Amino acid sequence: MSSIRKTSFLRSARLEQETLTFTVVVLLAVVLAIISPAFLDPNNLASLQTAVAPNLIVALGMMTLFMIGRFDLSVGAVMGISGIASAMALDAGMPVPVAFAAGIMTGAAIGAFNGLLVAYLGINHLIVTLGVLYMTRGVIEVVMSGQQLGGFTSFPEAFSLLGQWGLSGLSGIFLFSLILCVGFEGFMRLTLPGRKLLFLGGNPVAAEAMGIARRRTEFWCFVLSGGLAALAGVLMTARVGMANRYMGDGLEMQIFIACLIGGGSIAGGKGSYVGALAGVLFVTLLTNAFNLLLVPSEWQAVVIGAVLVLVLVADGIMVLRKRGRPWRNILGLWPSRMAT
Amino acid sequence: MTVTHRLDDTPARKRKPLFAGNGFGSNILALALVTLAIFAFLALTRQNFATWQNLNSILFGVSIEFLAIVGFTYVMVMREIDLSVGSVFAFTGTLTGALLVGGWGFWPAAGVALLAAAAIGFVNGFLVVRFNINSLMLTIGSMLLVRGLSNVLANDLGGQTYPRAFRSLARTNLFDIRVTIVVMVVLVLLAWGFQRRSALYRKMCFIGENVKSATVHGIRVGTIKILAFVASAMTAGVAGIFTASRITHADVRMGLGLEFVMVTAAIIGGASLYGGRGDLRGSALGLLLLALVLNGMIMYDIEPVFQQFVIGALLIATVAFDTVLNRRGQ
To answer: What is the 3-state secondary structure (H, E, C) of A19-79?
Structure first.
């Protein structure tokens, strides 16, 4: 008699893909440390931290949306405009907390607009967030059209400190983003609303039948995503000390890929915040590798696109396997034409 | 009883007139009227709008974009989407130019570039069909990938101008009009026939409406979808070759954001993100409408950076309209 196999911890905690990504990240780091002596340089490590921190904060919001089967492509532009908003508020002579709040509110408002259109009007989230991405970039160009590349450079001490504090070599915003990540992970695993997110993404119809307010949850998830992107934008503006119109340009694709690699699925119902961390680390290390090995930046887009396609194919194969399709049918030369 | 009633009912329904009802081609007339109204408004309020030169350049721009939207529209009919068109457009044009600079003849260069485009389209279609991947996601990936390749090529060229013979290609005239405009008119007429007469178009609509049912009824869903993706990439490639010839040098900004202009135009023209509908005549009118609006904004001295905002807003507005219409239909 065969005994029932005990489910492994990784499977029961749904951390299989996250572990895989973490392993790849560690391997990548080791390889980089061996082939490029500059990798372990303190300067490089510091710049890695500041690259990871905002991406991770944005990825937390994106991962929340991934769990319920949505995504937000406007995060990069939101990051840019909220940094500009807080810089403009400071420039107008407002105190630091008000300026901080102004930045966050800008992002949350854009998120609310996204959420309104997606959740309550039922418009395709890709189109809405893409349109908002275009509109926000347009607004940034209009606002910054009189300025130099980076306008508003004189910030009060307290604001700059927001982005520049540190603890014995560790960057403050990096620590903050890690704490935020752990907090979100705890929320997702230990609390009922957190579990509801995954349930909603996994089976929206069943979740609605159980009394979960789908539209309201979606709406607030979009607000959260906008707010977190704004937080990252404001912190980065404080860090670099100027409002940069190109901040967050093209970031949405990197975050998107990070979430997919870190275990999220565009179909929803999957993903964890630890996975978001793993994915962000992977994407950041990849970018860092390109810079260290002096590969032209155009190849970065090629590799990121190729990685995205590979991840999607792998995701597709997994889904088909779960539906019980035989390997021969998925990879064979002449599969029978089956209704999907 | 109800069944016989229904059977009796069906043949009694009269065939709808060409431009009425909510069936095929119903919104073409309305769209044409809106476009005409915008045209009349601009022509009456701005003197330098209705000049031969301005209109010719608008039509020329539209006709090149139109070449790219041909395949794209039919991909949308089947409830898929191909966001890599803008990148394929840039890649094919730049590759043709690069080969020409490298001393190739025009036909081999264009042929190789188009083959490369077809290969990209085939990979897109194949992966979508075989692994049942959401085409929206997949083509975002191939958009990034192909854009990267195109930029690598453009940077290698470093802003060199293409050979003279290639530069004059887009300026070829046929009956005193740019050849692409003639091609556009011919293609619109052909598409009219294709959409009214062809079983293939009906099958494509069927696939867009209900994939499972189409599969059960023996339609080769996979083959048709892959062919549509190949067609989409190749038509984008042809448009890219003309555009490369028009802008005369390698440019990394070529075709940037084209895919969203095309989604907007196709949806204005009667296609739907929910599949089952789509009309090349409408797509052409949609492109013309967008071009008129953008040209009008320039005529009214609205800041050019604001165009991005308008395109984004138009995209959301048309899709919102599409969504509301579809919900009512269900």
So the answer is: HHHHHHHHHHHHHHHHHCHHHHCHHHHHHHHHHHHHHHHHHHHHHHHHHCCCCCCCHHHHH
Write the DSSP assignment of B38-105 as a string of letters.
Answer: HHHHHHHH-TTTSSHHHHHHHHHHHHHHHHHHHHHHHHHHTT---TTHHHHHHHHHHHHHHHHHTT--
Q: Taking 70 as the threshold, does the pLDDT of residue A152 lie above it? A: no
Quote the distance between the C-alpha of residue B3 and its chain's center: 42
Q: Is B52-318 CATH 1.10.3470?
A: yes
Interface test with A, best of B88, B206, B213, B309 (most A CBs within 10 A): B309
The gap between the terminal CA atoms of chain B, to the nearest Å, is 25
Cβ distance of A121 and B323 shorter than 8 Å: yes
SS3 B200: helix
Average the pLDDT over B51-80 and give the result: 87
Range among A99-108, B154-163, B165-174, B278-287 with highest mean pLDDT value: A99-108
Residue at B223: amino acid letter: T
What is d(CA B232, CA B209) in angstroms, rounded to the nearest whole number? 20
Question: b or e along A275-286 (b: 16 or more beta carbons within 10 Å of the residue's beta carbon)?
Answer: bbbbbbbbbbbb
Residue bearing tokens 């953008």: B294
- All structural domains of chain B with their residue ranges: 52-318
pLDDT tens, residue by residue, B256-287: 778 888 888 888 887 877 777 888 888 888 88
Which residue type does A45 have? Answer: L
Contact between A315 and B133 using a beta-carbon 8 Å cutoff: yes
Q: Is A176 in contact with A182 (CB distance < 8 Å)? A: no
Helix, strand or coil for residue A310?
helix
CA B318 to chain centre: 16
Tell me if A339 and B222 make a contact (CB, 8 A cut-off). Answer: no
Looking at residue A212, the DSSP 8-state letter turns out to be -
Residue in chain A nearest B302 by alpha carbon: A142
The residue-averaged pLDDT of B106-111 equals 88
Residue B139: which of B308, B263, B285, B318 has the closest Cα? B263
d(C-alpha A124, C-alpha B144), whole Å: 21
8 A C-beta contact, residue B125 and residue B226: yes
The token pair at A165 is: 């504090």
Residues of chain A contacting B130 with CB distance shorter than 8 Å: 330, 335
Q: How confident is the model at residue A13 (pLDDT cuts 50, 70, 90)?
A: low
Q: Which of A94, B312, A196, B94 lies closest to B102 in space, CA to CA?
A: B94
Altogether, the residues listed in chain A come to a count of 340
Instruction: Please tell me whether residue A98 adopts helix, strand or coil conformation.
Output: helix
- Between A and B, how many CB-CB pairs are < 8 A? 147
Look at phi and psi of residue B301 and say left if phi exceeds 0, alpha if psi is from -120 to 50, else beta: left
- Reported as a single tens digit per residue, the pLDDT across A253-263 is 889 888 888 88
Q: For residue B79, what is the enclosing H or E element?
A: none
Q: Which of B56, B54, B49 is nearest to B177 (CA)?
A: B56
Structural domain spans, chain A: 20-326
Do B270 and B282 form a contact (C-beta atoms < 8 A)? Answer: yes
* Token digits of residue A207: 């979740």
Dihedral of the CA atoms B239, B242, B243, B247 (nearest 10)? Answer: 180
Q: Does the interface ipTM go beyond 0.90? A: no
User: So what CATH class is A20-326?
Assistant: mainly alpha
Would you state the pLDDT for residue B277? Answer: 80
At A169-196, the pLDDT tens digits run 677 888 889 999 999 999 988 888 888 8
CB B179 within 8 A of CB B172: yes
